[in-house]
Amino acid sequence: MANAREIKQRIDSVRNTKKITNAMYLISSAKLRKAKEGLAKTRPYFEATEHEIKRIFQSTEDVDSHYFYPEDHTKEVRKQAYLVITADRGLAGGYNHNVIRAAEEEMKTHRHVRLYVVGDYGRRYFKKHKGPVEETFYYTAQDPTFERAREISALLLDEYDNGRADEITVIYSDMESELNCVVRKSRLLPFSRKDFLNKREKQEKEYRFDPSPTSVLDSMIPSYVAGFIYGALVDSFSAEQNSRMNAMSNANRNAEELLTRLKKEYNRVRQAAITQQITEVSAGAKAQRMRRLKKARQQMEER
Hints:
Layout: H1 4-59, E1 79-85, H2 95-107, E2 112-118, H3 120-128, E3 133-137, H4 146-161, E4 167-177, E5 180-189, H5 213-302
Parallel strand pairs: 1-2, 1-4, 2-3
Antiparallel strand pairs: 4-5
């Protein structure tokens, strides 16, 4: 059994660890709030872009863009690309593991795979397991900005335009609720026409597109793709912070339970030590008393 000094050292260690986990909880909470505010400010622009793409499809049927599946949906997919969004570090529960596992399951279904990774955690994992990583993006996971999203979208569009990828899928985490995060697998390119035609809005006037509807549509796609990626980055960042908050909350709760047990054990050991000291003092006093009585008895016999 540990002595009181060792238990006291463990209590101090747990308290110091609890201070760290509590600080990480507060930092993640502030980052989560800031990320949501940034996405809320930029979302109207992307919603307007989506609305304009819908308007093009609703205004004319003469649209033939290689960014969209053909109407008969017969495009053959040979080269599959994945954008996998992870974190730069751990201590976030199963956040990174869930995304990587989903990516590995998806990659098993295709022979020719190109992998693009956001986050140092995913980069190190796929490097260790010899994954087909084409490009990694540093410092994007911990600081999702629209500029970083444009850089990623420009690279992916170049891969798609030059035929190095027939289809691009984004795998990322999304915060479904404060207690649960889910992994999303969303096809980025090519788009499906039905996604922009499900909700048909009545056109009050006819629109003219110059030089052509296809040219106007193709010029809008880079902004739309960048907006989609930015939303995925922020959703992933929010899910990471939420997962870390839950992990740190669980760590704080476990620390409190451990402190309670250690304090009880400390009090028990200290009480046992006090009891032993009292017993030793009492035994010493009794021995002294017996020695004095024996000495007094000897002196009486000598007289």
